[in-house]
Amino acid sequence: MSTISNLAMCGHDGSSVFRFSNTLASSFAPINYRVSWPIQNEAFCGSCLGQRHFRRRIKGRCVRMALVDEKVTRTKDLSRPSEVLAYELVQGALVRWSSVMDKSLPDPPTAVFLHGILGSRKNWGTFARRLAQEFPTWQFLLVDLRCHGDSTSTTTRGPHTVASTALDVLKLVRQLRITPRILVGHSFGGKVALSMVEQAAKPLARPVRVWVLDATPGKVRPGGNGEDHPEELISFLKTLPEEVSSKRDIINALIQEGFSKDVAQWVVTNLRPTGSPGSTPSGFSWIFDLKGIAEMYQSYEETNLWKVVEDVPRGVHVNFLKAERSLHRWALEDIQRIHAAEEVASEEGGGVEMHVLEDAGHWVHADNPDGLFRILSSSFQ
To answer: Does Ubl conjugation show up as a keyword for this record (predicted)?
Structure first.
């Protein structure tokens, strides 16, 4: 990648993907942006939906191009290190905001999306861009949780727990000066969202809607015979070398060990080519901290957040979504307990609600994205 101060690249979906080092310039543009962090110098935290230009080389010349009206204005360099988590910010076409703008201006409604164990923010990319097109006044913060993806190098300190992971996300939204209106967490990420509510009144808004996708607040119950179990998957991944020659070899090894083809193909999304950029990769290396992830999964099994649900704070609405073909069993007692909490919450000024996503296993955003979109859309109206 070029080392020029600012670099904007067009993504395959027509959005712009930015990587920044130092300076910035300006112009508003009614398009979606995705910004990846951490960066060496945070020129502005999160969006670049205002105040940005980019360069393109044509026949050996470097041409500056403004995003709108060919206007380019320079702004003060507000760089500062990003020390929390890697993230992407997907913004609707009508959003006119960045975290370095006037603090008195209200931030746009924001939804935070959290992945599960062995996942990454990329799991939510396509879904978030679809939401941004449907709800252009919203922005969507996609996070790499500690020990996962690009956050692996920034979160080396333990303990690696549900609570510490939730605190990471709270620190990030505070750093970005964002007040989330919606939290969406899949599996492990669902418990992280509940822990965020438990730990902080600020920077969470009131009202705030929490979506816990295919996870319960308490005991983790593994699926039945023949279903993939995260703990077994983590244990097997520990036996594999840190660098491998091909993704196909890993997929075959996982299938031979008894894991499903879908899970095997998903796991290898955590492999990154080795070697210098632009050269033919000599192999692949894992981008996660497996030791830390093992601690996180143990905490996921042990963490009990029923208190948050059964005594839900005023102004908080917790939505549970059960996948019809979930890999993880939902005990009847858990479902009954959630329904009981629904009645109590309505009397106390909060909210608890149960949903079922038809024709979906545990990977809800991959198995039935249309159904999930319809259910979640009610929160963005």
So the answer is: no
In this structure, how many other beta carbons lie within 10 angstroms of the beta carbon of residue 277? 7
* Superfamily covering domain 87-222+294-378: Alpha/Beta hydrolase fold, catalytic domain (3.40.50.1820)
> What is the bridge-based pairing of β-strands 110-114 and 87-91?
unpaired
Sheet holding 33-35, edge to edge: 6-10, 16-20, 33-35
**Tens digit of each residue's pLDDT (9 = 90 or more) over 79-109:** 233 578 999 999 999 998 877 776 677 789 9
In the chain, where are the structural domains located?
A: 87-222+294-378, 230-289
Q: What is the value of pTM for the model shown? A: 0.77
The per-residue pLDDT for range 328-337, each reduced to its tens digit, is 678 889 999 9
Phi-psi region of 307 (alpha: psi -120 to 50; beta: other; left: phi over 0): alpha
- 241-249 own/partner pairs: CB under 8 Å, 24+ apart: 242/285, 242/286, 243/274, 243/283, 243/284, 243/285, 244/271, 244/283, 244/284, 244/285, 245/283, 245/284, 246/283, 246/284, 247/271, 247/284
